[in-house]
Design a protein that fits this description.
By secondary structure, this protein is mainly beta. 3% of the residues lie in helices and 40% in strands. The strands form 13 sheets. Strands 25, 26, 27, 31, 34, 37, 38 and 40 form an eight-stranded antiparallel beta sheet that branches. Strands 28, 29, 30, 32, 33, 35, 36 and 39 form an eight-stranded antiparallel beta sheet that branches. The longest helix has 9 residues, at 910-918. The protein is globular and about 95 Å long.
């Protein structure tokens, strides 16, 4: 039967759209429909209280009970309203249904925050602004941060509210962070490229019904830049450390170089704390030093600081930005998110001696091995298609460009010797105590290359006249088999190493293995590193060594990345540090300082950092467990390389290899073609639309916790940068639609483009706002994500909120109802015989009705409880009863078709027709 849906705000779940009627709402069927839910036929519209709908950031609204793929593909779907606001909307809009406003009326409300430090409450039915709050005060000299004053190019012309707010439904309180400046002296940059002024960030808590402050704002940080360029930091956010901006062993929050980019979240399961904690994450605003990643939590009842965490207290960087995606909040209260760059020292670099192994990716398996020297043979110095060699010391990343002083890069272009040819190469190194001569022979073409390194003191570099010798290699997003097929090493007239026939003389590390008499250092694995060392110390004061090697690409991939010959007496890194650049973190929100509960860092971290190929560019998603366990179990994240990392949340693996790693890019594509915008997960499928790529769907296997690396479905539209943000809607969990927002024209005045794809077949494009000029969205803002709720799609832009929906269910927005044809409801075959307006039970299987008599329309009566105090109005009758009020109303039954009902006149408003559509009755 019909049933009411209880919510935290009271008995009703919906209000009629009073804004579309000139008269006050009568208690009619239309009013009833908003609060009535058909058992077994879906729930009421959802509220959107935070970024991407849910704490795990899956980005799927599976209770969108109005829009279907058929609706969206029809000519009825399109732009229904545009609401002008002041400033760019980087933050995702939020939505609350049936909100009781201060004057006593109710409305469905969309909330929008802008880069001019303004917050808007917008009537989602007609686009009218219910209230607006401006946190700037120009009369007092307080304005949104002018981007030019701090040299910011990423967000322009002003920076205000960037991260998506979060709403606590139990108190109707919204939390968000503002950024403001109070200029000092002349306008514009005048001191070290920065303008003198006071730059302030604060956390606010406001009543969503009025826009008024619930509590005084909490100070996050205040930086004063004087006219000489000196910066002074005043902040309650301080941690112990020696990293960027530290002084006297403490690291302060620097509001002049920080940006609150990810969405805020509420953590309602913090152990030992009854009130929810609101968390905000911070990273660099424009890669200007000094900066760190910060995760900060406040008690929602008092706005007192509860917990804070700095990602790199003894280092630099470690931004938490995730293209605006909010942190994941696990059911146990822990928080998962990914840093985008920065220093990493939280894992040892491997045991010393013959077990030494350096970093993957651009590290060539050598970077990180101390007390060492290496001659490298690489295809990625200084770019992914160059061949080069070089001599490097003490574990420096050998592919850094420009190279540091403790390394020598030698360009081999034009020599005829190309490692990328996949030919077998023979290298000979001769060292006499001061000069190292290198000769490389292409055994296929007989081309040679020779280089001499002068003033080389290898014993001084490695720490003695004897050391371990061997090889390492690595791959990045491109697969290649890197192997050494033969090797001799001689010193003082004795041959100390003579091939790999006796593998017991060697130690193989990482991905290295012996295949016959060859040492295969890497195979077809992304971001792999392997090393092989001779087990005994050998003289390194003078020597000659000859070895053959080959780099074999897989498919059409460019070879990645190269091989190193290494001399080392590595001591290993004995004590892990506390810096977590390019790391997926699981944090426990303990009081004072949050603690690291677990983490994952790719073996290729140093390569990602060197080339600014950030981890954490698309926002972390955690897939709920599907094996009965009451906790999430799998996390996914992307890097700028286009590599997707799949991590077990319950055992993240620390430093090394994830459960799975593969590239979303086309084979052979350059590395810098990842995704910079939100992914979405629905129905065991991950949706990604990367830069210079088409939208793709990857099938997830919950048993193995892995994806099919070959997309099961793809779209046809290639987008450029910054890739597209995605969200999913589904009616009753079925008939999914993937909503794709293209923002390529961000900063250039062009419109965003909203597309809708059939979730089961991305080749089926249901809708594109680019097809009709009248459907154009507002000017694009990068990283923005659409939300879909209650039959509407909200798209933030530059100075405008664009609303899409079914035009027949929308209305004029002028406060009046729209005339419409009768909405017919199909009834089940069993129609009771009765007359008048006798109330008839409504079974779960469908509606029962009266057939009427004498050819007159019959009536189907619906009776339900309402809160006390409502007056009767219109054609409805309220009968008072002890303890509760009741209302009865009716649906007319067509006399010529007893199995169909026509909605009575008050139900033919746009809102009522949408409600019936959402309930599956129209």
């Amino acid at each position: 039967m019909f049933a009411l849906h209880k919510t935290a705000r009271g008995l009703w779940t919906r209000s009629a759209r009073a804004g579309r009627r000139a008269r006050r709402r009568a208690v009619t069927l239309e009013y009833l429909e908003d609060r009535v839910v058909l058992t077994g036929n879906g729930g009421p519209p959802v509220d959107v209280l935070s970024y991407h709908y849910d704490p795990l950031q899956n980005g799927a609204n599976t209770q969108e009970n109005i829009l279907t793929p058929q609706d969206v593909a029809s000519s009825d779907f399109g732009k229904v309203a545009s609401v002008a606001v002041d400033g760019q909307i980087y933050a995702q809009p939020l939505f609350v249904q049936n909100l009781k406003l201060a004057p006593g009326d109710r409305a469905d409300v969309a909330f929008v925050a802008t880069e001019t430090d303004k917050v808007y409450a917008i009537n989602a039915d007609n686009g009218s602004i219910l209230w607006m709050r401006d946190y700037a005060d120009p009369a007092a000299g307080i304005i949104p941060i002018r981007s030019a004053d701090l040299g910011i190019s990423t967000i322009s012309p002003s920076v205000g509210i960037t991260g998506t707010p979060v709403i606590d439904p139990s108190t109707n309180t919204m939390y968000f962070v503002t950024s403001l400046e109070q200029p000092i002296g002349s306008a514009g940059p005048d001191a070290g490229g920065y303008a003198a002024g006071i730059y302030t960030m604060q956390l606010h808590a406001v009543d969503i019904t009025t826009g008024q402050d619930v509590l005084p704002p909490a100070m996050i940080g205040q930086t004063t830049i004087d006219t000489s360029g000196k910066q002074t930091y005043s902040t309650p956010l301080v941690v112990a450390g020696t990293g960027s901006a530290s002084e006297y062993g403490e690291v302060p929050f620097t509001s002049s170089t920080m940006l609150q980019r990810p969405g805020l979240v509420l953590d309602t399961n913090v152990p030992g704390h009854k009130a929810p904690i609101v968390f905000a994450a911070f990273g660099s605003s424009h890669d200007a030093e000094p900066y760190h990643g910060w995760l900060v939590g406040w008690d929602t009842q008092t706005l007192q600081l509860y917990s804070l965490y700095n990602t790199t207290p003894n280092g630099y960087g470690g931004s938490l930005w995730q293209a605006g995606v909010a942190p994941v909040v696990l059911p146990n209260g822990n928080i998962v998110m990914t840093t985008g760059n920065g220093a990493f020292d939280a894992a040892t670099s491997g045991p010393p001696g013959p077990s030494a192994l350096g970093f993957a990716d651009f590290g060539l398996g050598y970077a990180g091995i101390d007390h060492s020297a290496a001659v490298t043979f690489s295809t990625v110095i200084p770019n992914p298609v160059a061949d080069a060699t070089g001599l490097f010391y003490n574990g420096v990343v050998p592919t850094d460009q420009p190279l540091p002083q403790n390394g020598t890069y030698v360009d081999m272009s034009g020599s005829g010797v190309a490692f990328s040819s996949a030919h077998t190469m023979q290298a000979t190194l001769s060292y006499d105590g001061s000069t190292l001569t290198e000769t490389i022979l292409d055994t296929t073409t007989n081309a040679t290359f020779t280089h001499t390194y002068q003033n080389v003191d290898l014993p001084a570099q490695v720490g003695g006249g004897s050391a371990y010798v061997g090889f390492s290699a690595s791959t990045d997003a491109r697969l290649s088999t890197n192997e050494v097929t033969g090797w001799t090493y001689s010193s003082g007239g004795s041959t100390l190493v003579n091939g790999f026939a006796d593998t017991s003389e060697f130690t193989a590390n990482g991905t290295a293995q012996f295949t016959g008499q060859a040492a295969q250092l890497t195979g077809p694995t992304i971001d792999a590193a392997g090393s092989v060392f001779f087990n005994n110390l050998v003289p390194v004061g003078s020597f000659q060594t000859t070895f053959t090697f080959q780099m074999i690409p897989h498919g059409t991939n460019i070879i990645g990345d190269g091989i190193s010959f290494i001399i080392q007496k590595s001591q290993g890194q004995q004590q892990p540090g506390v810096d977590y650049g390019d790391t997926m973190l699981q944090l426990s929100p303990t009081p004072g300082t949050s603690t690291v509960a677990d983490f994952f860092t790719s073996a290729g971290q140093q390569g990602l950092e060197i080339k600014d190929l950030d981890f954490g560019t698309a926002g972390t998603i955690v897939i709920p467990s599907q094996n009965g366990a009451n906790k999430p179990q799998t996390a996914v994240e992307l890097a700028k390389t286009g590599e997707l990392f799949v991590v077990n949340v319950d055992n993240m693996g620390h430093f090394g290899q994830p459960i799975q790693q593969f590239s979303i890019n086309a084979p052979g594509a350059p590395l810098q073609l990842g995704a910079w915008s939100a992914m979405a997960f629905y129905n065991n499928t991950l949706y990604i639309h990367g830069a210079f790529n088409v939208i793709k769907a990857y099938q997830f296997d919950p048993t193995t916790q892995t994806f099919n690396p070959n997309p099961i479905s793809v779209g046809n539209t290639v987008v450029i940068y910054p890739s597209d943000s995605l969200t999913v809607s589904a009616k009753n969990g079925k008939n999914g639609i993937v909503w794709d927002l293209e923002t390529d024209k961000s900063g250039r005045g062009g419109p965003a483009i909203l597309r809708a794809y059939d979730a089961s077949n991305l080749g089926n494009l249901l809708y594109s706002s680019a097809n009709l000029p009248s459907d154009a969205a507002g000017p694009a803002v990068k990283f923005t994500v659409p939300i879909v709720v209650d039959g509407m799609v909200f798209v933030g832009g530059n100075g405008v909120l664009t609303i899409y929906g079914l035009k027949s269910l929308w209305g004029s927005g002028d406060g009046s109802s729209q005339p419409a044809a009768a909405v017919v409801v199909q009834l089940p075959p069993a129609v009771a015989s009765a007359s008048g307006s006798t109330a008839v039970p409504v079974p779960a299987a469908g509606l029962a009705a009266t057939s009427g008599s004498g050819g007159a329309p019959g009536l189907l009566g619906i009776t339900t409880e309402l809160p006390p105090g409502l007056a009767s109005a219109g054609g409805s009758t309220i009968g008072s009863a002890a303890g509760a009020d009741q209302v009865s109303t009716s649906i007319g039954i067509l006399p010529t078709a007893p199995n169909q009902a026509i909605l009575d006149e008050p139900s033919q408003s746009p809102f009522a027709r949408r409600r019936w559509s959402g309930l599956g009755l129209a």
